[in-house]
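for the writeup, i need someone to sanity check this before i put it in the appendix. the sequnce is what the collaborator sent (i think, or maybe the updated version? ugh). structure was predicted straight from it, no edits. if anything looks off just tell me and ill rerun, i have time this weekend
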Amino acid sequence: MEKERIFLDITDRRILTELDLNCRISTAQLAKKVRKSREAVKYRIKQLEENGIITGYLTSINPNKFGFYMFKVYLQLENIPEERAKFYDFLRTRKNIYWYGISDGAFDCIFAILSRGITEYYEEINAICAQFRKLIIRKLLGVMVDTTQYNKKYLLSNAPQRSVVFAGNVVDNKLDNLDFAIIDILANDAKIPLTKLAQRTKSTVEIVRRRMKRMEELGIILSYRIDVDINKLGYEFFKAIVYFKSLSRKEEIALMEWMRQEPHSVYYIRSLAPWEAEFEFIVENYMQFNQIIDEMRRKFPNVVRNCEHVIFMEERWMPGYGAIAGQG
């Protein structure tokens, strides 16, 4: 059954936009930004949570900055509903799965897996494919070069444009158990007060604050943002898999600028895969997505050779850093 669409007023959209830029912002600061009282802002946030618009508070964390490579797996699956359900449940329990998406279109399932190296990744993916050999029709493997993550510009027509970049070169910044405990909690509870975070990590507020600042400076912690149920707002999540004819540095800069300005863009992913890039958009429907892709083709006729797409029915960030801290 299709979810009932919820319509938001401009104040709610401003609140969501500011929380996506930094969900650790104080209520007083947020109230000042949206020009409402603190009580009104608290009430609206509570309503957004209770109505299922805000589904979580996430910390964007870059595992490449503490020694992990990020590999991508793209699968086409047999139409065996029970086996698909088992496989998706399996992915949800794997602590080294960074993100997964269940989709329709070019692929049925895509996920990112964290590994200390190529051999470890090779063994892991072979074990997964052997376990689900009856389900997997075709697999394609890739390595994420880097990903530009944009703020949720689609929420507000004049939203500030911010972005962070994760993946990239692997740097083995040394983290201890306290660091891992902090980011393990923050990953899916980005709004947690420092006092509670200190209690849960058996540390002090000042130590936790210093550790967080250090990890922000190292590029391990990139941003504190919100997770939104886009279906309730009448949106859909599309990925464009783009094959290039060629791409000079000048053309790449122009393409990145186009993505930065496109109001519905959410991710620009550069990959070592059979294709060169993946562009992700939050849009109202396929027609709007198709219009964006047509515009890209017109603007970059000497760059874009071909384009495939998927639409995500479910996607989830699932970092379990405490669980993988002992690897390597």
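The chain has a mean pLDDT of 92. The longest helix spans residues 118-131.
thx in advance!!
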